[in-house]
Design a protein that fits this description.
four-stranded mixed sheet; five-stranded parallel sheet; alpha/beta; Rossmann fold; globular; 9 strands; about 40% helix
Length: about 200
């Protein structure tokens, strides 16, 4: 993925409740030339989610079959559910010169860095940890015990933020999307992406 004709892989993560999906969706409505990689998961589909758009919602047995066939770029278990990134569509898009946004959890993001050293890792957070708690409770989709587990997990994930290239503060969706756009636009201006302009 070092060739100037290839796209860049942007790996977006953050704790549950940070607003990753909302920020990415806002960005994609105004930037149609970026490929969004849809992850697979064994967790239940939420009311507002669409299969094949937000995630591929599959049974655990199907996920494990894909895993045995080495069809994931990364995979991880999070709060009792499996998540994974089908590798083929990601590399196809990058090799065709498209930038790719991959939304996954923190452990998966760090494992992608090992396989794709040129990947750009972005950590999304709300303006405070108390705001994160309010967002999780405000969903109204999960019992208190699950929310408690997500908050405990978030504390661990925050400690990994120093391993990421950028931090986006999602104070509101407009600001979050603008910060994401700034990062993606800046990456396109790097020397390795513009060597064709300095050929003599």
């Amino acid at each position: 993925m070092t060739s100037s004709c290839n796209g860049t892989l942007f790996v977006v993560t953050g704790p549950s409740g940070a607003g990753k999906s909302t920020v990415i969706s806002k960005y994609l409505t105004e930037n149609k030339d970026v490929f969004f990689s849809v992850s697979a998961t064994t967790r239940s589909q939420r009311i507002h989610e669409q299969n094949g758009v937000d995630y591929y919602f599959i049974k655990r047995s199907e996920f494990e079959k894909m895993l045995s066939e080495d069809k994931f770029l990364e995979h991880a278990e999070y709060v009792g559910n499996l998540y994974g990134t089908p590798s083929e569509p990601v590399f196809d898009a990058i090799n065709k010169g498209h930038d790719v946004i991959l939304q996954i959890e923190v452990t998966g993001a760090l494992s992608v860095r090992k396989k794709c050293p040129d990947a750009v890792l972005i950590f999304i957070v709300p303006p405070s940890f108390s705001a994160l708690e309010l967002r999780l409770k405000g969903r109204g989709t999960e019992p208190d015990e699950i929310i408690r587990k997500r908050l405990e997990k978030a504390k661990t994930e925050y400690k990994a933020a120093d391993l990421f290239d950028f931090i986006v503060v999602n104070s509101d969706v407009e600001n979050g999307a603008n910060e994401l756009k700034t990062i993606i636009d800046a990456e396109k201006l790097k020397t390795k992406k513009r060597r064709n302009f300095i050929e003599v």
